[in-house]
Amino acid sequence: MFNALMLEKQDDRTVASIKSLDESSLAASGDGDVLVRVEFSTLNYKDGLAITGKSPVVRKWPMVPGIDFAGVVETSAHPDYRPGDKVVLNGWGAGETHWGGLAQKARVPGDHLIPLPAKITTRQAMAVGTAGYTAMLCAQALEKHGVSAADGDVLVTGANGGVGSFAVAILAKRGFRVIASTGRPEEAERLRELGAADIVERASLSEPGKPLQKERWAAAVDCVGSHTLANVCASLRYGGAVAACGLAQGMDLPATVAPFILRGVALLGVDSVYVPRERRIAAWQAIADEVPVATIESVATVIPLADAPDVAARLLRGEVKGRVIVDVNA
């Protein structure tokens, strides 16, 4: 038997509760050839939407949420994994189309897992989570496009969020001069400690703007979407690029083709859910080599599995600061 946070649909409402389940129930959660003893998971914004039912994240009922987990292989029919191997999972529909990581056990396809880098513990991996992993993918996308520190300032929108905070730290570590956009001026000092050279007010980018604006940024990581992304594109320097990975302001893009045609800028979409295995391994190895995960872990909040529904609701209300690690065995 093992404990899991279970989401069930009752009268068009999402009801979350801790259930004690038999391992045989994992067979109904989807095809999987690896059984993992989960040690830690985390709460992301998408998890908050799923647990509270605020958005139709869950595609199959009942559902164990949790788009991330890190743990130890118990049994495996996959050639790449043996009992005792430490692994991490991000995305691949976990918590959406098949049972995810907010449980003490998970059965998943081995192709969805990657080996946990030796420098990182399972707890530290969840301090990083999908947020840090996505931020690294964004930094790698910009550099693959040819953006270098010598090209000029790099803007990070939504810099106080999980992805944004990691993006500031990663880009600064790689030598970029980072400008952080935030709507929380009281967090400016924390962003500077992460590596931001300057701060811009979120409101200066979040309202409708001109199709083509003053050239300001060599590149950007955008976690916001909508008018913010449109204004970022309109103010990129000639040949600049933006790695877009979020939609906190909205899914729309009220922009014109002017920046793309007249300035040759590039819009790089960054997905973290279905990234090929080789890129996942490269991103996590870069995190292990570059990101001070011990520091991140030290300032993260650790909660027991039973507290996840309450914290998920607070997360959506903007009442949670920093990363949340879920100790599924507490």
TrEMBL record:
Pfam families: ADH_N, ADH_zinc_N. It comes from the Bacteria. One of its GO terms (molecular function) is acryloyl-CoA reductase (NADPH) activity. Residues 13-326 form the Enoyl reductase (ER) domain. This is Quinone oxidoreductase. It comes from Caballeronia calidae.
